[in-house]
Sequence to fold (486 residues):
Amino acid sequence: MLISIKLVQVIKKRLLLFITDFYNFITSKAKINITKKSNTMDPNVERFMATIKAKNPGESEFHQAVHEVAESLIPFIEENPKYKHAKILERLSEPERVILFRVPWLDDKGEIQLNKGYRIEMNSAIGPYKGGLRFHPTVNLGILKFLAFEQVLKNSLTTLPMGGGKGGSDFDPKGKTDNEVMRFCQSFMTELSRHIGPNTDIPAGDIGVGGREIGFMFGQYKRLRNEFTGVLTGKAIQWGGSLIRPEATGYGATYFAQNMLETRGDSLKGKTVVISGSGNVAQFATEKVTELGGKVVTLSDSAGYIYDPAGIDKEKLAYVMELKNVKRGRIKEYAEKYGVEYLEGKRPWEVKCDVAMPNATENEINEQDAKTLIKNGCFCISEGANMPSAPAAINAYIEAKILYGPGKAANAGGVAVSGLEMTQNSMRLSWTREEVDAKLQSIMKDIHDTCVKYGTENSGYINYVTGANIGGFLKVADSMLAQGVV
Ligand code: NDP
Fold:
């Protein structure tokens, strides 16, 4: 009996040991996994992003934009705890105000149409809210919050005193008559006018909002408020606009490409350039690249792209401008007119080039596109559009150590000249084309130098993403610290 009790005790002990060993084996594996995971993802970034996602559910573009910035800024903030204690990044990621409204309007048949209107007043630490209006059927809160968030850092980079905002509507100007666009714009501005003003919030154009739409909105604002002020930028020169404002984003992104190339003793001269889009930014990037001796071989719209190996020269660009801005036609018609290839439903990143300028919309370059560009010899990317490269594409550029100018730095020329338009409005005078262009070039150079200052790695590689994020952050963060908890 005694023997059998002893035997049970031994078996029990052995079993317990076995279980303990097994448990230790499993948990040690888990520990290795956790260590491996934390090697690839900063846990502070992970924690921060978990809160952003919980507070802003379903806003994937906003999460993407904040994540990219958090990856650069959180390590920097950890080294500079004054920003951490004041929760600057958390406050930067929360709009100061979000305005949502109904936009009813009558179409040409007399039927009532209904759209959503938005204005995100993101941050006013360094100046009044400033940023464009987008009219496109894909517009939603998450997209506008991503654009407004980017705008805060971008505006800070310009060195001008402008806060950040963005707005727009899910209205689609495509296929609408001028009268329908006018009625929509008037209804949109009737509500928006309560919230904006030349010292409060100064909207501009973006996708789907060009000179025509700015004109209709400015007219309605003036009528409602009985005042002629610089409440919008992108106005025509006869009624308060600035020379070079239409050109500014495309020219600026081209100057930025040139600045990046100069760091490697190179230039745009003789380079083959692939451009997406055929709207405002794409048109003026094409003009400036050609002027600086490069050859633009593609343009696109949402239906496909044209490939013109001989290059889109001055005369062909004039045709594109007439086609897109006046006739409001499709890029396919270029291929028919000049007898070149049109690739339906495709994006131009498969075309061999030295320089690529994505000038259409967000996430238009995925990881595969990026790898194709690099494999084909592309070594410089300057983004005229906002967030056109997906995160995996950006990783591919940085791994390949090519020159990569992210939108918030490379396309800041547009808002910079908007800032110059505001200055001219306040002073009630107009600068010449040459004066504004010289100021634009000098601002783009300053932005480039800021990126170099904060983005140069030990290896000498300039990480423009880190440079733009930290460079844009500092001025806003220090102003927020000085202004207290507001
Ligand atoms: P436009 O409306 O003038 O042109 C947009 C162009 O992009 C069109 O060719 C359009 O084709 C194409 N496009 C739009 N949406 C899509 C889509 N989902 N897929 C493929 N192609 C698309 O806009 P802008 O040129 O003003 O703006 C282009 C980009 O530049 C945007 O990212 C904008 O935020 C950014 N930007 C613009 C500034 C400005 O000053 N205008 C300033 C800073 C940045 P389609 O006609 O078929 O829709």
Q: What stands out?
A: The chain has three domains: 44-93+465-486, 97-228, 248-416. Residues 248-416 form a domain with the Rossmann fold fold (CATH 3.40.50.720). The first strand starts at residue 97 and ends at 106.
